[in-house]
Design goal:
Elements: H1 6-12, E1 17-22, E2 30-31, H2 33-45, E3 50-55, H3 60-70, E4 74-77, H4 83-93, E5 98-106, E6 109-110, H5 116-122, E7 126-131, H6 147-155, E8 160-163, H7 176-179, E9 184-187, H8 202-221
Parallel strand pairs: 1-2, 1-3, 3-4, 4-5, 5-7, 7-8, 8-9
Antiparallel strand pairs: 5-6
Helix pairs in contact: 3-4, 4-5
Amino acid sequence: MTHHHEGELLADAGVDLVGLWWAVPGGHAELSSDRVAELATTVRGTGQLAPVLVTFSADIERIVSTMRETGISWLQLHAYQPPAVVRELRRRLGSPATIVKVLHVGAGGCVEQRFVPAYTRAGADLFLVDGATPDGRLGSTGVPLDPAVVLPLVDSLDQGFLLAGGLTAANAGEYAGIAGHPRMCGIDVDTGARGSDGRFDSGQVGGLARQWRVGRREERDD
C-alpha cells in the first residue's frame, strides 16, 4: 500500500493485513519512515486492517525505532536476516510484536531450511513461504511456487505459516493441499492483487479472498 485511498478498497475486499514497505532498496512500493507512519494511521483507521512493516533491513536499532514511532506491531523480515537478528528484535520489541520471517524457496528447496529451528527458538511467530528467483529477486516477483516443493517444507514447520509467491484467484486450486494445511494462516499477495495498470484492483482482491477461503473450507471438509 502506498496511497491512503487504497486502505478502504482493501478493507472492503476482505483483507486483514496490509504491508508497508520500508528499507526495501529498489522496491516498487518503498516508503519513507514518515510515509509509513501516515499510512499506518490510515490502515488502522479502517477498523479492520492492521499494518505490517515489511523490510529487508537487518538494522535492529532502525527497525525497533520505526516500529515504535509508527505504532506498528507486525513485522515481516523479508530478506536473509539471521536468527540472531530475530532473537534481538524479539527481546527489544517484546511479546506485543508479531514477527514474521520469510523463508525463500527456489527450485532446489528452501534456502533457509536448516535455520528454521533457530528462527523458531529466536522468537519468530510465523513463517511466510515465498519464492526466490534464479537471478536473486525477492518479493513481489509474481513467480508461482511449486506445491510439491512447498508441502514438505510446511509439513516440517512447528509454527503457523503464510503462503506467497505468484498467487492468484485462478491458481488457488493448485494449492489445495497447502490451503487446507492445519498450520496455514493465510496468503500474502501483491502482484496478483493488481490490475493491468499496476494498481490494487477490488475485483482481483475480492476474487483472491473468495477463492482461497473456499479452497481452505473444501480441503478441511474432505
